[in-house]
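[DERIVE STRUCTURE TOKENS]
===
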Amino acid sequence: MDRTIDNGAGRPPASTRPAPRRAWLDGRLAGATLQAGGMLQLAGQAFWRGFRPPYDYGPELVEQLRFALRISLFPLVLTAFALSFGPAGIQASNFLGLFGALDRLGGVYVIVVIREFAPLVTAIVVAGVAGTAICADLGARRVREEIDALEVLGIDTVRALVVPRLFAIVIVCVLFDVFALLAGVLGAVLVVVQNHAPVGPFFSTFFSSATTLELAASFVKCAIYGVMIAIVCCYKGINASGGAAGVGRAVNQSVVVAFLATGAINYVFTQLLLATNPILSEVR
């Protein structure tokens, strides 16, 4: 016999209805899962179509490279120099100076600059400057229905819009890693000079501790950051809705997701690198 109590509105009893908080959490998790799958799908489509002829996205690729270099280079150099000289250099030099081992500052900067700060600063600056610009541009095109018009005309929007921005961001991230390394080393030299110590011992320990493996890993990490930033920003921009306010929300979400993904990628990549190459954990 059915003992279900009717509450007068045709709804199941309160004890069988999901709690509002749980329903909200389930909806958020489902939405996040769908977006993650959409980003992976977009990444696969972009690489598949980007490496297949015809390669007619060259002019747009060059334009995106110029744009990213113009708006991101100065903030990158300034941020890398400031972080290298301030939080890392001053604190490390004060600690090593207590033991009279300021010459070991070069070994510290191998970990600080090459392994961590240079790729991290590159990802943060590119995501915050170039990534947001890309998201805003694609979002504005979506709300103005320009992307819909391109699709109606039979133009492959992934090849025309996503592929050149993806390749441009990856190239820019790898190139900016070099500038971040140079700015970081310049900040370290300034720290040494500020402490009235010779520069020679610093470079001696720096080059004796640095390896080509760490430099290559730094470039690979920046390339992964570039792929992630480009895909996140392009996906959020292309799927923007709700007019100008929706574009603003998409830009905000793209920055938050890119920063969180940067931290996750950095943790996983560094742990895998150290686990597969124990020599990097040895004191040299």
About this structure: Helices lie at 20-50, 58-98, 105-143, 146-152, 157-194, 199-209, 212-238, 243-276. The chain has eight helices and no strands.
